[in-house]
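B., you asked whether I could sanity-check this one before it goes into the benchmark set. Here's the sequence:
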Amino acid sequence: MTPVVRGLLWSVVYLLAAIAPLFFMIVGDAPPGRGWWTDLSMGLGFVGLAMLGLQFAVTARFNPVDAPYGLDVVLQFHRQISLVAFAFILAHPAILFVGDPQLLRLLNPVTATAPARWGLVSLVGLVVIIATSLWRRQLRLRYETWRVLHGVLAFVIVATAVVHVELVGYYVSGPWRRALWVAMSLVLLGLLVYVRLIKPVQLLRRPYRIASVRPVGAETWTLRLEPDGHAGVRFSPGQFGWLIVDRSPLSVREHPFSFSSSAEDHSGVDFTIKEAGDFTATVGDIAPGTRAYVDGPYGAFSYERNEAAGFVFVAGGVGITPVISMLRTLADLEDRRPMWLFYANPAEDGVIFRSELDGLCDRLDLRLVEILEDPPEGWAGEQGFVTPEILDRHLPERDERLQYFICGPEPMMAAVEQALHDRGIPADHVNLERFDFIE
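And here's what the prediction gave me:
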């Protein structure tokens, strides 16, 4: 089964799961309708609750589910669908208030009924979790603090919403509706237990040891991890994993980084990390021998997913890390297909893997194009940003046999994607990796 077909099937499964609660309103001996607008309000509320519950599944990192899309795409979907679920949940009371303005008294937690109080808590929690996720940086929330707050709020939101529905009871009474409601609640509980308990316990059985920490550029470090008592992880070049250092997998301190080592190197894995705040600012201080864990691999950013006559890589700054993994792997496999690497940096001191890239040009049929925004005196390479003109100077005429891989700051990625579109490159030949999808 192709990734496209698998992705389509999982999309259908998600859609069916999201609308499944509507069966509460029609299955068995359905209760009398309470008016079209009231029933619409209840239906939107049920669908919104189902979508919130499915967020546990979306973020559970099930490889069979994530693989057709790439985990970065799945997590972007998680963020966007949260806003859709919020709209459905908000429409639920809004429709009731428009139909009967006297129900606005339910917004007062002192005089509200018990079901309304639980629903109000769930709605307020949803507002807080969305606000802190969208504006985490503006609110100056540390990543780890946000992770704890996000996890606690997610549980509170769904739990209080379930209590709200249970206390209202109108559409979940009767044997068939009760069975569906219990099954849905158990599935949500099972997803939570898997994400927060079972999966971390599985990681405990596969520890790693930090073998070395070496500088590879300005404020940039490569961590070498070696498996401790197991065979290690097998990944496709270009993929990434969630790294936990000197903490239990049960903790919230985990961060996503691309593998930078060759996929053909089975003795361990490398992560190349640039200091950017929170955990990354302390990477250079990690002592060899420190215990670590790796949850992965994840991601669809790999040349192995598509047959191609050659490859064009465009990297900006530390976005070179998944690309260097692919280049190292291709070199180990003695691949002789034509390749181009456009590597952009603000200044020369930001370039990492400089000497190795020169060596890879000898081992591969690789053309390296370096681009500096602020070049030094006597710079012979390209200057400024990755522009259509720079691409035109170094790439052959439109060649639909090539696959294109772009990783770097969002403005660069958007500009290059547009430039390739203008060159007539099909969208399915352009692969993007957004390494800041957690922000």
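One thing to flag: The first strand starts at residue 208 and ends at 217. Otherwise nothing jumped out at me.
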